[in-house]
Specification:
3-stranded mixed β-sheet; Ubiquitin-like (UB roll); globular; 659 residues; 24 helices
Amino acid sequence: MSWRSGSRAVVLTAYHPSSGAGDAPGGRRSGQYTMNHDHSKKIPDGASFDRSGSQDSLDELSMDDYWKELENIHETRGNNHEERVALVVKEPDEGELEEEWLKEAGLSNLFGESSGDSLESMVFLSTLTRTQKAAVEKRVETVTQTMRKRNKQHQIPDVRDIFRLQNDSKGKVCDGSEPSAVRTSENKNETHDGTKVFSGPNFSLGTDEPKSLLEDMPSSDTDINLEISFAEQAANLKDSSVGKMYKGGGGDTLLPNFRLPKDKTGTTKIGDLAPQDMKKVYSLALIELTALYDILGTEFKQQKAVKIKTKDSGLFGVPLSLLLEQDQKKVPGTKIPLIFQKLIAQIEETTLETEGLLRIPGVATRVKGLCQELEAKFYEGTFNWENVKQHDAASLLKLFIRELPQPLLTVEYLKAFQDVQNLPTRKQQLQALNLLVILLPEANRDTLKVLLEFLQRVIDHRDKNKMTLKNVAMVMAPNLFTFHGFGSKTIEQREFVMAAGTANVMRFMIQYQKLLWTIPKFIVNQVRKQNTESQKKEKKDKAMKKLLKKMAYDREKHEKQEKTPNDTDVPQGVIRVQAPHLSKVSMAIQLTEELKAGDIVARFLSQKSGNVQTLKKEEVFLYEIGGNIGERCLDDDTYMKDLYQLNPNAEWVIKPKQS
């Protein structure tokens, strides 16, 4: 039975149209497929799979594990008599897609009635880079044209006026940076192809000083520059030398050892920022990713799924958010599904050295029986885990991922994840994945993180289990990149390309997972700029209210009474650190060039007291609160003098990290 005849659903990636589990990719259709978009070697007929190849190399002869996993998935679905409702992916018109994009980017207020909200959007827009502005302008233009065709009477701004509102009479942007090079609708073709729009290397980072891309690019090809917009780096690279765009691209199957250069103001990880700032990060990441794809000539469109009836209880086939809700009733604060955690623990409990771990499936009938038994007994605590063999647990783990009503990587961004393979350089692929991880919903992102960490632990035992990075990527890619989608058309001619590409993306996510959970500094700087501009606006509004209510004197007196020690008692070059959970609740700290956040925490912890519960170093962190950031957990290597200069009005508090 062929894949397509055996399934009602159209899968967004690749199904191998073979009739047996042992078919190699060198069969009758192998000549249709290339491993990389710019590396068009065909698979030779009769090619065999060589497991002795490089552990980190994805060569053209290594697809057996992928196809065998698809066969296992097919058999599992074939034995499951309960037919699941297919997930329908909507295909809205371009105008609807761009309207949704503007909404997701937090810019729907551009079309609203509220002038206050529009002003807030203008503050947001003033912090964007040139490439980000071009991406916004392109979408606004599309929406405007669509609405005009529909004859809708909305308050639609002219695309040429979106950023003009931010410029003064001399044409300078209000934040003091260089004027925007974004073109208007008269030369929209230049905007769309990304090659003629950007006339110079300077752009605004949301800070007062413009930066030179040529001067600030990292010296090493393996250094990831987080200080400059990824799209701006791509635009500069494209303008300076077309040949450089493909350096380290698809022809090289080895993965570089990318690294993040140390930032004196500290590295910001997902989870380090307060929710109000993360909302801004999400909007900026969406715009930045779109701008990057625009510059690199890759289409970026968010997919949308029609709402379908799903299970409202149980373990398998339950929406992730709903599953966490029911888990949190059992274990408050749970962020990873309990069944997911337990299955990983069960796999690891025996040993990670079992040969073929993840690759060798459990017995299909036994896995089905275990699945049904888990549904009935898991929450009751009566399920006997001693009956679960290691390969059965691995099959259940993969089944859990596949049976999610919507993919773990989400319907919205699944295609964007797949399209990472089409970007010209390894570094740009990594940058795109970084932004995509930021865009995932929190529950999906947290679950993905635990999965990738587990997969790395499997790979760490590759000498015994024979599961190298490429083997694990081959096995897991079909589970993350396929789902029960039912569309109006298929992509059969791209089956093999998609298969190799998704395995490559899977390989990237595992190899670089520690880098993917980092929030780029240029985005954090834009958030700081937005907060600063919003505070200026609030101060003006408050001043007007004081004047109207004639309460200026009383309020100034009240504010003086409430000033913190940081405002009055601390001399220049000294910060006051609060630690309400520790025995020493407050301390004045002299800033020096070498003083780090970890040093301050250690100094507080050295103050012993029998009256306060002792906390370990790994349990508490120094936080930057207020000023131009909502709240930010600092990594131990943050140089405090450099950070203080960036945010002199912040308060500094030591406390446990919120789980």
